[in-house]
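Reproducibility note. Readers wishing to regenerate the assembly model reported in the main text can use the exact inputs given here. Chain order matters: entities are listed in the order in which they were concatenated for prediction.
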Amino acid sequence: MKKFFALVLAAVLCLFACSALAADLKIGVILVGDETEGYTLSHMNGIKQAAADLNLSDSQIVWKYKIPEDQTCYDAALDCIGQGCNLIISNSYGHQTYMVLAAEEYPDVTFVSMTGDFAALTGLDNFKNAFTKVYEARYVSGVVAGMKIAELLESGELSPEKQPNSFDAEGNVKVGYVGAFDYAEVVSGYTAFFLGIRSIVPNVAMEVNYTNSWFDIDKEAAAAEALIAKGCVIIGPHADSTGAPAATQKLLDAGNLCYSVGYNIDMIPTAPTAALTSPTNVWSVFYKELFSAVQNGESVPTDWAKGYEADAVKITELSASCAAGTAEKVAEVVAAIKDGSLKVFDTATFTVDGAAVTTAPCDMSFMDWSTMTAIYEGETVDAIVDGAFAESEFRSAPYFSLRIDGITEIK
Amino acid sequence: MAQGNKHEPLLRIVKRGESPFRLKLLVRIAAVLLALIADALFIYFVTGLDPLAVYTTMFQGTFSTPMRFSWAMRDLASLLLIGIALAPAFKMRFWNIGAEGQVLMGALATAAVMVYYGGKVPNAVLYAAMLVAAVFAGALWGFVPGWFKARLGTNETLFTLMMNYVAIQLVACCVNIWRGQASGLGKLNMRSKAGWFPQLFGQRYNINLIIVVLLVVLMYCYLRYSKQGYEIAVVGESENTARYAGINVGKVIIRTMILSGALCGLTGFLIVGGRDQTISTTTAGGNGFTAIIVAWLAKFNTFYMALISFLLIFLEKGAGEIASAYNLNDFASDIIAGIILFFILGSEFFINYKPIFHLGKHGTITKEAA
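Running the prediction on these inputs yields the following structure tokens for the assembly.
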């Protein structure tokens, strides 16, 4: 009987403690944009979803919109702390240098700099980075695109006779990619996309056009148009606007043979017949883990990176333009990624300068380029592990550094 | 005034002489009250919120925590310092629209010294070099339009405005070089913290504040009691009078613009070293233009300028807090702050001018709007 009472007492105490903790969690959210911008919107939705799943009230979240990557970010973080926040999240890469200053001064508050890349190097217990393995979803979207190319080749709609412009000198089908910047994140993305296509259609070659901006509808549209004019039949974008899918739709309607893979959001409303699918992040998966960990006083990983294994990434609904059998193929590939039998950057599937890759040294240091010194010195790791490039394993932010054969960057 | 004159218009505007202090105070209080009423209507009918709660929130933007107050003081320091820098130029009726660029040049010079000499020379030398470089760069950006105006009679409004764009492009170019392979510049000397102002009396922005307080007094005395200040006033009233009195107008213009630019450069130094520790094209943040309002409204009295700067900062912080607290679109909160500013600016009109209404044929009813 005594034991029973003790148990009940313990349970009641635990309940009290838990509810007290639940009331204690207060989250400050620092956003680079607001709901009018796709990237920030997807974070907002993820946070709201996670908060709803955990029964957090509106008063437990302080929102800071349109915070640029400057001192304003530091002020916003401190202001959130002043309002009682014990967890601060920022969603843009450049916020991290300001978040870390606040993290140094407030060791009791947890700071998460989404997409940031040096948390592990700072040695701070309360400063974290997180990113999804979105390259897995890009690979899958590449498979969708590959299925479409295969269908076009089989039906004869795409043949060297009919579309001579769409084949290069070696007979490879031309594919295009609109990239934002020449960054590891983008390189990792387009390489995964390309390998996805090539897993279905072996003879493809890809050109990457950079816009040097994360969000520029006109530049992205112009880059897509230039690629289609060169004969590319698939356009994959890594930039945040709807520019490239919209341009692809326009040219498809004008009689060109071209289809589009989007990013972040479903592009079917933008490009009803040209869009195939879009790889996206499911941010709520991370936010839910984060909120419940902080709520329960558990530790938060310094570098959080999950993909299909936790359903933290996905591709949006397949459009009617997708080839027959695409859904089945996607399910098969996703299952293979989940059980680990398929590695996106398997070194057996690509070469660099004609040779197989056996080593890929990646310097993890965070540099101050104005003085050419390391702000946080990191190790140089060999990213080739068990016959594949281990992306997002050594830290959450991408560090893919290879330029594989079959892809040409236009700078 | 011919009372009952057939041709008398319905409304006339008459310039007042020097208004008594009580009238000024009364008009301003009335303006604030009217603004609060107009704002309450907007808040209640457009946003559907409780006006009193919104006003409380607005107040909290500056006063709820010591930290927020310290930020308000920090931002006030930047705005007020530019206002002080502009005062001599505008008092001379030299339309210096180029404060934004002069501040940026000071900031750029500071940043360049931090990047290239940070950690390589002792800190005291580094601070001195940053200061000298900033003041020189700002002075240069003031000297050029001043010289052209004095020697060639160019239009200073256009000239100083254009110099802003040159400065912005120079900053953009340097930022692009310094950021290297990163997407943004981040803080300068992040690791060594070389060139970052130390805390003084436990407050991060005290150095900036102390310098501004000193300059409020110095500039007040310079404009009011010094011979050069008098020359500026005379040139501003009438260049011909100045010439007749034996003042070298060109010299006064160039000297004053060097002073104005140098003080803007100093502001750039304080912003980069003491506040941001980085530089971007928005380092001056539009304060170069807002400060013109500050200088004019205060009629170049630096103490009034401090009050007006405070009001502007208070409104800005309040608007930001309203937007954040009520999840309002920031345009709505800017309207709330804007209405208050509009009424306060409007009250200046009634302090300087007297509207006279003429009603009916038989007799005139004059009415002073207070």
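We highlight two features of this model. The mean pLDDT of chain A is 90. The radius of gyration of chain A is 23 Å.
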